[in-house]
Design a protein that fits this description.
The chain is α/β, with parallel strands linked by helices. It folds into three domains: 2-103, 3-Layer(aba) Sandwich (Rossmann fold); 122-349, tm_1862 like domain (pyruvate-formate lyase- activating enzyme, Alpha-Beta Horseshoe), CATH 3.80.30.20; 355-414, Beta Barrel (OB fold (Dihydrolipoamide Acetyltransferase, E2P)). Helix content is 33%, strand content 21%. Strands 5-8-9-10-11-12 form a six-stranded parallel sheet. Strands 13-14-15-17-16 form a five-stranded mixed barrel. β9, α7 and β10 form a beta-alpha-beta unit.
């Protein structure tokens, strides 16, 4: 199986694999040994769809050596583009959308069976499907539908199973985690859920995908006071110019964003703030973009992801007149990442000499050393701590002295 796209897709893939194993399938790591290859597709952006198509064509080449090989594609891209895929990708034997009957059990809230990669110490926990926001650039509500929060009991059963199976860090994900429970009539749903998740006793709980205007003082104070909750706030701001934000259909403006950053840093001085931004959205001229550059330079966020705008059919943004060429979007993305690289290096240099807790994540056989993460570093998207001298095992949280800094990664020694 090949799982593409976001962490939420990863959860779907793990639940699919568990179901297949339960039905007698054997999972192989080498696609050339497979009788069936399953691709969980991403249809969110043009770049992601290109990756899906490239993956399909690459794996379809194996049919030349093994004509009986069957290739199946499931997930978001199939849900949006089934007709086009049927017409243009004859290499695919089966297309399975999100709403098809044969996968209904996979997406059922009560399904908590997952096949986690052996030795994993971290896992994602999806608390809701769909989205209740209406951002003009985003096709998720078209693909996944409106917000559908999972009942608290289902989430806690799954969290408990993850911990029982050796998972030390639970990463909470959904399209907008701050809206959790609104559709179920639960006020302050995310705070109430987190209090129950920490009771199943993971080492760390990390929050992802928080909508800025829905982050309450109560949530910030809980993250600050609960030792198991990582001092980490993942808040996609998308832009800083109020005019661009309004066209994006966002609820916040420039002042709201700056006040939120100030509030988080006042309450949790050592917390990391991760955010994501889009370059080239309709209405972003050089003036608006320079404002975004200044914002990143002055506010020094800990981790930043940047995406180029992709007009998605069915969204309100699709009908807006574009003000940037593809090359301009890419150039602006590169400019932002260059700023962030300097910010990240500066912040990492400030950690040298400090003794900090590190979750040992894995053994890197190629370099013959262990690799871990600070609680201010999320799996896969942020930097890591390379443990030059360490005798611990993956899954342990140890004290580490930071001895060297790089642009995104750190080097440390066990104390």
């Amino acid at each position: 199986m090949v799982s593409l796209g976001c962490a939420k897709n990863r959860v779907d893939s793990e639940k699919t694999l568990a179901r297949l194993v339960g039905q007698g399938c054997v999972i192989v790591g080498d696609p050339s040994e497979a009788e069936y290859i399953l691709i969980n597709s991403c249809g969110f952006l043009g770049e992601a769809r290109e990756e899906t198509v490239d993956t399909i064509l690459e794996l379809a080449e194996l049919k030349k050596q093994n004509p009986s090989l069957k290739l199946a594609v499931m997930g978001c891209m199939v849900e949006l583009f089934r007709g086009e895929m049927q017409a243009e990708l004859p290499e695919v034997d089966y297309l399975v959308g999100l709403s098809d009957g044969e996968v209904s059990e996979i997406y059922d809230s009560a399904n908590t069976d997952r096949l986690i990669e052996p030795g994993a110490v971290s896992a994602y926990l999806k608390i809701a499907e769909g989205c209740g926001n209406s951002c003009s650039f985003c096709s998720i509500p078209l693909i996944r539908g409106p917000l559908k929060s999972r009942p608290v009991d289902d989430v806690i059963v799954e969290a408990s199973r993850l911990v029982k199976n050796g998972i030390k860090e639970i990463c909470i994900v959904s399209q907008d985690s701050t809206r959790y429970g609104l559709d179920l009539g639960i006020k302050g749903g995310l705070v109430k859920l987190l209090k129950k998740v920490v009771e199943v006793d993971p080492k760390w709980v990390r929050l992802h995908y928080l909508y800025p205007t829905l982050i309450t003082d109560e949530l910030i104070e809980l993250v600050a006071s609960e030792p198991k909750l990582c001092a980490y706030m993942d808040v996609p701001f998308q832009h800083i110019d109020s005019g661009v934000l309004k066209k994006m259909g966002r609820q916040e403006n420039e002042d709201d964003i700056k006040r939120l950053i100030e509030k988080i840093r006042h309450t949790m001085p050592d917390a990391a703030i991760r955010s994501a931004f889009i370059t080239g959205f309709p209405g972003e001229g050089e003036k608006e973009f320079q404002k975004l550059e200044r914002f990143l330079s002055e506010n020094e966020l800990d981790h930043v992801g940047v995406f180029t705008y992709s007009p998605e059919k069915g969204t309100r943004g699709f009908d807006m007149e574009e003000t940037c060429s593809g090359d301009e979007k890419e150039e602006r993305k590169a400019r932002l990442m260059e700023i962030q690289k300097s910010v990240s290096l500066k912040k990492n240099k400030g950690k040298v000499g400090k003794i900090l807790p590190v979750l040992v994540e894995r053994f890197d056989a190629g370099n013959n050393l262990l690799v871990g993460r600070l609680e201010t570093q999320a799996p896969e998207v942020d930097g890591e701590v390379i443990l030059s001298e360490c005798a611990a095992n993956p899954g342990e949280i140890i004290k580490v002295k930071i001895v060297e800094s790089m642009e995104y990664d750190l080097v440390g020694e066990e104390v």
